Each structure stands twice: as structure tokens, then as C-alpha cells.
From TrEMBL:
Keyword Iron (UniProt): no
Coiled coil: none
Name of the protein described by the UniProt record: Inosine/uridine-preferring nucleoside hydrolase domain-containing protein
Pfam families noted in UniProt: IU_nuc_hydro (PF01156)
Gene3D superfamilies in the record: Ribonucleoside hydrolase-like
Signal peptide: 1-24
Lineage: Eukaryota, Viridiplantae, Streptophyta, Embryophyta, Tracheophyta
Classification via InterPro entries: Inosine/uridine_hydrolase_dom, Ribo_hydro-like
């Protein structure tokens, strides 16, 4: 997780504070019913815990749905969320993920679309391209880290009573429909907007039940503080310095986009233009809430609850794994809860010239009539960025690209929407506090409150659990032919692994396991292998995780793995071993991301 993800964590929490301030001075209203749609990135976990710490008579989280086309994969995300809610005693909160529905070529949206792809690329199955998602690294610094939450998830979270179960897991769309149908609801969008955009497009009659939308994402007038050169350093080459966006993998093609908005620009456009009141917390505010060394030290000293411990350990690893020892200096710039301003904004979904079809835009290319009855020659009809290496986006003679897909842009005219935007974090009014932002004090106070606190962590849940390595005594064992097993963690591979482990050692001597990270399961699923070996008393067998992408394939992209379904029968089932991984004993070994 880069600095932007850590910093936006705290800006996101401002949304709750703003909602709270809106009710100040009035007779206590009914509880604010809340639905959260999240990509389960580490920063989102902080925000969810912050929400759950508040009195349900004030903020009542009714449901959480998982955005599955961004920083995490559905199978890993859903079980982490179940365990997080279990720790907080909130098994009453509905959880939705995935779905097997699709969108036909004529624009018909079928029930239970899983949200595995941006709307522009959604077909009739859960197999597809990774147009926008390919800009998120699959290994370290990307989805591998977030799926495992840097290993902190397995180390700290208890194991809940709920877990993913094939054919029984509520879908995202069903949970959204059930929750919003039940009464006026505030919607918090912590990731890309695919799920909620599909809900609005499919259920216009329920729009009246959405009171307000709070969005974390985008960059309006922001200027990226990373990648800037020190004064008087003539050898330094600026990178993202001054950009509106934070796309560290593709800023040379698109310097305007922020990850959450870029993940599905057309979906975000539908949300912004829905007519529902919106509060946006973009990078403009994020960049004025740096993670300072004083905040980190104060957080380290204030961990009196399980949720505070989980949050701090996640933040600590994010700090410890920063690219160099300049973590605090990169974030601790001179920056003045947030000042608000109404701005006229739209979301760029395609690039000019409009109406020129070049094969990049499935809404128009190959259609006699545009999909969803979009306007020919309109704002959606231009070139749509097709990846991190799109040659269209190259600006001749420049170091920054010209594409603007996902840009939350200030405009005037009929395509603009009035949005309440957080533009700047306010300084701390408590002059005696060592923290320079008032929100820092508030965040630490809320997270350490004894009320609405976590019930236990993993070791308190299982008090007799001991980390014991089970290794057979092979001193006098007759050992057969040595075998190295190379697997991609498909269900069939796990069956083969069990057969190898059950075979007499005099015949087959399994000496090691190599894991391909570019097959039927995501790399973080390697923990299931450790648990199987632990169950079989073979903690002596080493496990090595290999390359995340295919040979000669770019590190960013999905050239071959795109043929594997994301939903049922694909990654969702294989990452959870069809739900059976939860019944395995917990191995002392696990994926070590950063030693």
C-alpha cells in the first residue's frame, strides 16, 4: 500500500465526521442507516472499524458489500470481512459479494451481476479482461499484500462463525436491494463504483431511498506531492509531482486519475449523475492529512482495544514496507476535521475526439445502436483507455500522458454536477496536543473507546492454541523417489497433494512444493497449502511461491489468467477451496510477505 492508500484512510473517516456534524444541534434523529461498498483495501478496514465503534443509535451499519474488481479478490476479502465483523460482535451485518449475472450485448442487465469487471467490459459471464484493474500490481505492493493484509489478518483476527459457502453466499446486488428497500439509507463508497452503479441502473424505483452518497476518491484540484524533486537537485527527474491523480503504475499515460474512480469511470459517472446528494473526499483533502511521525508514535502508544491493535499493526507494516526510509519525510509536508466547497464536477469516461470508433469502446464499437442508448458523438463515445500501456495516451514530446479516463474534472454546463467536496483538513484546535490535525486526536480516541469494542482476537478466542510445528522423525525412514510438486492451487491440485501425502514414503517422498501464482487461485491462497500440510503432520515440507505472471507476460496485465472465471467455479471457489479451507487447522506457517 502506497502513501496515498494510508493517507486516504484517514480522509475517508472524515465522511463519518461530516455526517455527524450535519446532525449537530438538532434533536436526535433516527439512526443513520448505512450501507458500505468496499474493496477491502487496508485503509477501508480502518474506516469500517471506525464506523462500527460509534453508537448504533447514531450510525447503524446495516450491510457491507464487496467490490471485487479492485485491490482485493472476492474469496479473500469476504472471509476477512466476516472475521472482522465477528471480532466486533456484528454478525448481524449483511455481507454481499459476487454474483453470476451479466449484461447482454443489447444492454440488458440481468440480476446478480457480480461486479468483477467495469460495466464497459461486463459480458454474460465472470470471465473477462482487466482493462482498468491491470494497473494494480498483482504481487507485492498490490493485491497479494491486500488479500493477506500483509499477514496481519491471519495473525490477529479471530475466526468467525460465518464464511463463504458456495451457492449460499448472498450476492452484492441482493444485499443492496434488501438493505435499501428497507428504508432511507446512506451509502458509503470506499472503492470503485461498479456495484452501486449497477444497482442504480437496475433499480431506479429505489433511488428515492438513498439519502446521501459519501465517496472517497478522485482528484479535482489536487497536486500529487510524491515524486517531486528536492530544491537545487538538477539530477532528479520528477515523476508524479503535481499530478491530479495517484496512479503510480500508469501516470505516464494518465496523470489525472485516482484508483477508485479509474476502476470504472462509466460506473462513477452513473453515480455522480444520479441526482442523489454527494459528498466527495478526494486527494485534495487527502494530501493535507499526512501520516506524520508524531501520529504514528501516538498510535503506537494507544492500542487498548483489539480493533486499535489490528489497525496499528496494519499501518505499521505499511510504513515498514515503504520504498525507503523517507516514509515520514515524504508524507510530512507543510499542510495547513475539513473545509468544504461546492464544485461543479463530472467524471471523464472517454477521450476526445468523440464519435471516432477505434475498437477501444465496447459501448459503441460493433453496435448499430450504442449500448444503454448512449448518445452518438457524446461524452462516452471517444477513445477509452485500454490499459497501462495504451499508445493512444502517449503525448508526443511529453513525459505525461494525455488520457483522462477517471478524472473528476471541474466543468461548467449541462454535464456538470454540484458536489460537496472536502478540500482541506483543518488544524488541531487543541494547542496542547502533539498532533497537528484535530481528526488525529478524534480517530485515536474513538478507536480506543471501551464501548462497542472487539470481543477477542485469535489467541484469546482459542486460548489453548499453540504454534507447534509437526514434523515426522525421518531418521530411520526408508524414503522413496524424491518428488517436487508444482501446483497452481486448483481443487484438483489439492486432491493430488493429499494423494501424495497419503502415499507410503517408501514409494513417494514429497520433498517440496512449488506454487504457480498465475493459475486457478490467487497467490495469497498459499496459506491453504500450509494448513493442509499442518493437518497432515508435514510441516517439514518447504513451500515456494513462484512467479505471479506467465513467462514473457508483463507484470501488469491478465494476458492468460483472464480465461479463468472470477466467480463460481473460478477464483471465488478456488481461493476458499469451495469454503472448505475454513475447517482446516491453523498452521504456524503462513505467507511471509516482508521478513
Amino acid at each position: 500500500m502506497g502513501w496515498f492508500a494510508v493517507a486516504r484512510t484517514l480522509s475517508l473517516l472524515l465522511l463519518v465526521a461530516l455526517a455527524r456534524l450535519a446532525a449537530a444541534g438538532m434533536p436526535r434523529p433516527p439512526p443513520h442507516r448505512i450501507l458500505v461498498d468496499t474493496d477491502m483495501d487496508t485503509d477501508d478496514l480502518f474506516a469500517i472499524l471506525y464506523l462500527l465503534k460509534h453508537d448504533r443509535a447514531e450510525f447503524d451499519v446495516k450491510a457491507i458489500t464487496i467490490n471485487a474488481n479492485s485491490w482485493t479478490d472476492a474469496g479473500h476479502a469476504v472471509n476477512q470481512l466476516y472475521d472482522l465483523l465477528y471480532m466486533m460482535g456484528r454478525d448481524d451485518i449483511a455481507v454481499g459479494v459476487g454474483g453470476e449475472g451479466g449484461i447482454s450485448n443489447d444492454g440488458r442487465i440481468y440480476p446478480h451481476v457480480g461486479g468483477y469487471f467495469p460495466i464497459i467490459d461486463q459480458g454474460m459471464s465472470t470471465i473477462g479482461e482487466c482493462r482498468y484493474r491491470q494497473s494494480i500490481p498483482q504481487g507485492s505492493g498490490g493485491r497479494l499484500d491486500i488479500n493477506a493484509n500483509y499477514g496481519v489478518r491471519r495473525e490477529i483476527l479471530p475466526q468467525g462463525n460465518r464464511s463463504y459457502s458456495p451457492l449460499q453466499q448472498p450476492t452484492t446486488q441482493q444485499v443492496m436491494i434488501d438493505t435499501i428497500s428497507a428504508g432511507p439509507t446512506n451509502v458509503f463508497l470506499f472503492g470503485t463504483h461498479t456495484n452501486f452503479a449497477l444497482f442504480l441502473m437496475s433499480n431506479p424505483h429505489l433511488k428515492k431511498n438513498v439519502k446521501h452518497i459519501y465517496i472517497m476518491g478522485g482528484g479535482v484540484r489536487s497536486q500529487n506531492p510524491t515524486g517531486c524533486c528536492p530544491k537545487n537537485d538538477t539530477s532528479c527527474v520528477p515523476r508524479q509531482c503535481g499530478d491530479h491523480g495517484n496512479m503510480f503504475t500508469t501516470y505516464t499515460k494518465n496523470p489525472h486519475a485516482e484508483f477508485n474512480i479509474y476502476g470504472d469511470p462509466f460506473g462513477v459517472y452513473q453515480v455522480f449523475h444520479s441526482g442523489i446528494p454527494i459528498t466527495l473526499v478526494p486527494l485534495d483533502a487527502t494530501n493535507t492529512i499526512p501520516i506524520t511521525e508524531s501520529f504514528f508514535k501516538a498510535f503506537e502508544e494507544q492500542q487498548s482495544t483489539y480493533e486499535a491493535q489490528y489497525s496499528f499493526q496494519s499501518l505499521k507494516i505499511a510504513c515498514d514496507t515503504w520504498f525507503d526510509d523517507q516514509f515520514y519525510t515524504k508524507l510530512n509536508g507543510d499542510n495547513d476535521f475539513a473545509e468544504m466547497e461546492v464544485m461543479n464536477i463530472t467524471v471523464v469516461t472517454s477521450n476526445e475526439p468523440y464519435g471516432v470508433h477505434d475498437g477501444s469502446n465496447p459501448f459503441f464499437d460493433g453496435h448499430a445502436s450504442p449500448k444503454f442508448d448512449l448518445l452518438k458523438g457524446g461524452v462516452h463515445s471517444g477513445h477509452v483507455q485500454i490499459g497501462f500501456n495504451d499508445s493512444f495516451c502517449v503525448l508526443k514530446g511529453g513525459t505525461k500522458g494525455k488520457c483522462q479516463d477517471g478524472y473528476t474534472k471541474e466543468v461548467q454546463g449541462p454535464d456538470s454536477v454540484a458536489v460537496l467536496v472536502a478540500v482541506k483538513a483543518k488544524p488541531n484546535r487543541n494547542v496542547k496536543s502533539p498532533l497537528d490535525r484535530e481528526f488525529f486526536d478524534h480517530f485515536l480516541e474513538v478507536l480506543n473507546r471501551p464501548e462497542h469494542t472487539g470481543h477477542f482476537n485469535f489467541t484469546d478466542q482459542f486460548r489453548h492454541y499453540k504454534e507447534i510445528m509437526y514434523k515426522p522423525d525421518l531418521k530411520h525412514q526408508i524414503r522413496g523417489k524424491p518428488v517436487i510438486f508444482d501446483m497452481d492451487m486448483s481443487p484438483g491440485d489439492f486432491l493430488a497433494l493429499l494423494c501424495l501425502l497419503k502415499a507410503p514414503m517408501e514409494a513417494i517422498d514429497l520433498r517440496g512444493i512449488l506454487v504457480s501464482g498465475n493459475g486457478w487461485a490467487n497467490p495469497a491462497t498459499v496459506d491453504v497449502i500450509y494448513d493442509v500440510l499442518h493437518m497432515m503432520g508435514r510441516d517439514d515440507i518447504p513451500v515456494g511461491l513462484g512467479k505471479i505472471t506467465a513467462l514473457r507476460a508483463p507484470d501488469l496485465g491478465c494476458e492468460y489468467v483472464k480465461a479463468i472465471p472470477h466467480g463460481s467455479g473460478g477464483f471465488l471457489d478456488t481461493d476458499t477451496l469451495f469454503g472448505l479451507a475454513r475447517v482446516l487447522p491453523r498452521s504456524p506457517r503462513s505467507l511471509i510477505l516482508y521478513a
